[in-house]
Design brief:
Shape: globular
Family: Belongs to the MurCDEF family.
CATH topology of the largest domain: UDP-N-acetylmuramoyl-L-alanine:D-glutamate ligase
Structural class: alpha/beta
Largest sheet: 9 strands, mixed
GO molecular function, one term: ATP binding
CATH architecture of the largest domain: 3-Layer(aba) Sandwich
Protein name: UDP-N-acetylmuramoylalanine--D-glutamate ligase
Main location: cytoplasm
Number of strands: 20
Strand order of the largest sheet: 7-8-6-9-10-11-12-13-14
Helix content: 25-40%
Pfam family, one: Mur_ligase_C
């Protein structure tokens, strides 16, 4: 079903990283006639995948990043998480080698129109909402959520038709490696401080995010959060037609008289939204804008907004135990995400937070801790820093524990009926877990164990 392109035929391509996106990229390149070499610093425990790749005619080099791999190389496809300071990547840049990421390949072969969502927070929820709206009562084709959401885009692009839609969640890391990628609709949810350890500065990070617009023309659309002056300024320089959304001001999609409106049409009362928090109201406004641009009926938009309860690990309601509601927001890997999660709740929050120390304090969280949090359970490398913020905010109880898993019992012991127990770490998970998904899953496991114990008593 994919476009039959000859761009990569007989080209020597180095795929850096043996993860999901790397395997998908290698498979696609192999089908497109490239000479593929895959390199990863780690050696996987299960070598069967390596044998499969070799049987398909690909070369696999594991355990190091030898610079001689660049000698015959004409293109590098890089895992987005590998920084540009990596010696092999730096050497490739120095010799002027083109370096792309897997979404670029997917775009080049896809017959399906492309929608792309980026921003510091809200990407996954907005991507999921858009996909659900596009699939609601759809008579022909299918909308697929791909990219940073965990599904390699080039895997889906191979089978997608012109009747389908690819809804890309795009990280700044992925956007660094695009060249021709051009979404019909681009969405920028918001911009906050994030990933400066990877990009080197906030300016570099924002520049990476803006790349989502770089190939758009006046035939395309840019859905922009006009509650942020920085995003408004970016919109002013956009070649695409700008569609604004705002929960505070007049915009194409806005909140008026307690309801979401799109271009003067009432869509749904805010009270009918199932997702808690002001940040999710913004996500709903962005998704509604895209759905309207794609011709989705208002009734189908309403159906999704009134039933969608959240994405796993993103302010996800888990269960209620003896009157205590548990929420999993493990995806909150920065302070802004935690601040936004707290907006969705009343004052009775027991917050579970902590993780990788990126060298900053949590002073910015103090007002939110003061207004919302009755107890704080901290863990990981940042436990002391979060405890200091809690003390400044005069949080009544601050407890240290090992990790998100052990924090469950500690939080329950501090709690009373009607309390909310919220995992929203404000930090990356890499000091203890491989990713935020594992952290969230371990948290949920601990809640399920606790529920069994409480019910047996």
């Amino acid at each position: 079903m994919m476009k039959n392109i000859t761009t990569y035929q007989n080209k020597n391509v180095l795929v850096l990283g043996l993860g999901k996106s790397g395997l998908a990229a290698a498979d696609l390149l192999n089908k497109l006639g490239a000479n593929v070499t895959i390199n990863d610093f780690k050696v996987p425990e299960d070598l069967s995948i390596v044998h499969q790749l070799e049987e398909q005619g690909m070369k696999v080099v594991l355990g190091s990043h030898p610079l001689e791999l660049l000698e015959q190389c004409e293109l590098m496809v890089k895992n987005p998480g590998i920084p540009y300071t990596n010696p092999l990547v730096a050497a490739a840049q120095k010799q002027g080698l083109t370096i792309i990421t897997e979404p670029e390949l997917a775009f080049m072969v896809s017959k399906a129109p492309v929608i792309a969502v980026t921003g510091t927070n809200g990407k996954t929820t907005t991507t999921t909402l858009i996909t659900a709206m596009l699939n609601q009562n759809r008579s022909q084709g299918h909308a697929y959520a791909v990219g940073n959401i965990g599904v390699p885009a080039s895997e889906i692009a191979q089978k997608a038709t012109a009747d389908d839609v690819l809804v890309f969640e795009m990280s700044s890391f992925q956007l660094m490696g695009i060249q021709t990628f051009r979404p019909k609709i681009a969405v920028l949810t918001n911009l906050y401080e994030a990933h400066t350890d990877y990009h080197g500065s906030r300016d570099n990070y924002v520049a990476a995010k803006q790349r989502i617009l770089m190939n758009q023309t006046d035939e395309d659309y840019f859905v922009a959060n006009f509650d942020q002056a920085e995003v408004r300024a970016i919109a002013e320089n956009s070649a695409a037609e700008v569609v604004s959304f705002s929960r505070k001001d007049t915009a194409d999609a806005m909140v008026k008289d307690g309801a979401i409106y799109y271009k003067n049409e009432k869509i749904i009362a805010v009270a009918e939204l199932r997702l808690p928090g002001l940040h999710n109201l913004e996500n709903a406004l962005a998704a509604t804008s895209v759905a309207k641009l794609m011709g989705v009926a208002t009734a189908d938009i309403v159906e999704v907004l009134s039933t969608f309860t959240g994405v796993r690990h993103r302010t996800q309601y888990v269960t209620t135990i003896a009157g205590r509601k548990f929420y999993n927001d493990s995806k909150a890997t920065n302070m802004e995400a935690t601040k936004q999660a707290l907006t969705g709740f009343s004052k009775n929050v027991i917050l579970l937070a902590g993780g990788l120390d990126r060298g900053f304090t949590f002073d910015a969280l103090v007002p939110d801790l003061k207004n919302k949090v009755k107890a704080l359970v901290v863990f990981g490398e940042t436990a002391d820093l979060l405890a200091q913020a809690g003390e400044t905010a005069q949080v009544a109880d601050i407890i240290y524990t090992k990790d998100a898993q052990t924090a469950v019992k500690a939080a329950y012991q501090l709690s009373q009926p009607e309390d909310v127990i919220l995992l929203s770490p404000a930090c990356a998970s890499w000091d203890q877990w491989k990713n935020f998904e594992i952290r969230g899953d371990k948290y949920i496991e601990a809640i399920e164990e606790l529920k069994t114990e409480v019910e047996e008593v």
